[in-house]
Design goal:
The protein has helices spanning 10-25, 50-60, 77-85, 96-110, 115-123, 154-160, 184-190, 205-210, 214-220, 241-247, 254-261, 283-288, 303-315, and strands at residues 2-7, 30-35, 41-43, 46-48, 131-134, 143-146, 151-153, 167-171, 193-196, 224-228, 231-232, 235-236, 272-276, 292-296. It is α/β, with parallel strands linked by helices. A hairpin with a 2-residue loop joins strand 3 (41-43) and strand 4 (46-48). Bound molecules: guanosine-5'-diphosphate, ligand FO1 and calcium ion (CA). Residues 8-9, 36, 39, 50-51, 204 line the site of calcium ion.
């Protein structure tokens, strides 16, 4: 089957590893991952793409699984020097190996390559087994509008303030003029299945759906669109997605997130929704919204358990 996955960083990369393993079992590894670029930023003159890098590193097997970002076994010599200069952000660490990625990317962007072309070039280094596309080639970095009126880059709000400053809204300046990256709409149109990874619904999947044309492509495709809940038992498994959901008026529950995405039959993007076994009681609520509810174990402990979830999503 031709599979398209919409994904953010940590939840997105764990799920993507599972999709790759599941498709290998079927002997048909043809998948495209459309990655959130709302987390991207310029820092110390280089372009960072945190979610893109998380997925690339994870598929290549060189990611730091403990921290959830960056390269395994990285060192911080350059970072110490940047801090000594007072450059960059004192709360934001750029690892030495990771900086190699940012320098390569920034160099190629300066030479005129698009983000899509840069990502294709980076993917040549490792046999990733899956095609990665940024959601758009436009710079639409997420900003957080705070209750007190201040506006911060998403990364400052997330890493420096650990999402503890009450957000009023999330914005992606310029996104109304953005277009899907080349290949994104085509991949969705030609897919047999489209999967929404168990990623942050607000700041990972949200920006992808906000790129004009992507939501329409999801609504028009003949593929089934299946989402996997990032919420288990009313809690985010990891991270601070609950703060983001509260800010946009969505309860932190598997059913509420499904309703937020909405049924394709009612103007939304979902045909089916994978709920954790712990949330089986919420199935009728999901079905009442016109979305088929499928109960499955949703803990991604390793590649094996992620593959089982991906298989359940593909069956749905
Ligand atoms: P980020 O970009 O690094 O924040 O990662 P994503 O947006 O891709 O995913 C973050 C979300 O993944 C979190 O809000 C969690 O709810 C979800 N998540 C992480 N691990 C698991 C897991 O094992 N199972 C499920 N169902 N969701 C998970
Ligand atoms: N997260 C942190 O909590 N602290 C950091 O110093 C940090 C550095 C960093 C550098 C490159 C990169 O690609 C990601 C990095 N992250 C860091 C993770 C990242 O800021 C966020 O967790 C994600 O953007 C949210 O998905
Ligand atoms: Ca992210």
């Amino acid at each position: 089957p031709r599979v398209v996955v919409l994904a953010g960083g940590v939840g997105g990369s764990k799920f993507t590893l599972g999709v790759r393993a599941a498709l290998r079992r079927l002997g048909a590894p043809e998948a495209t991952v459309v990655v959130n670029t709302g987390d991207d930023l310029w820092l110390s003159g280089v372009r960072l793409q945190p979610d893109v890098d998380s997925i690339t590193y994870a598929l290549a097997g060189v990611n730091d699984t403990q921290r959830g970002w960056g390269r395994a076994g990285d060192t911080e010599r350059v970072n110490e020097e940047l801090q000594a200069w007072g450059a960059g952000w004192p709360w934001f660490t750029l690892g030495d190996l990771d900086l190699g990625t940012h320098l390569a990317r920034t160099g190629w962007l300066r030479e005129g390559l698009t983000p899509t072309q840069v990502l294709a070039r980076m993917a040549e280094r490792w046999p990733l087994g899956i095609r990665l596309l940024p959601m758009t080639d436009s710079e639409v970095d997420t900003h957080v509008l705070l209750e007190d009126g201040r506006r911060l880059h998403f990364q400052e709000w997330w890493t420096r303030h650990r999402a503890q400053l009450p957000p009023r809204a999330f914005e992606n300046p310029g996104i109304p003029d953005a277009t899907p990256a080349p290949g994104v709409a085509e991949a969705i149109a030609q897919a047999d299945a489209v999967l929404l990874a168990p990623s942050n619904p607000v700041v990972s999947i949200g920006p992808i759906l906000a790129v004009p044309g992507i939501r329409d492509a999801l609504r028009a495709t003949s593929a089934r669109v299946v989402g996997v809940s990032p919420i288990i038992s009313g809690r985010v498994v990891r991270g601070m997605a609950d703060v983001c959901l509260t800010a946009i008026g969505v309860e932190t529950s598997a059913a509420a997130v499904a309703r937020h995405y909405g049924a394709r039959s009612a103007g939304g993007v979902l045909d089916a929704w994978l709920l954790a076994e712990e949330d089986a009681a919420a199935a009728p609520e999901v079905e009442a919204a016109g979305i088929r509810a499928v109960v499955a174990p949703l803990w991604m402990r390793d590649e094996e358990t992620s593959a089982t979830i991906a298989e359940a999503a593909l069956r749905a």
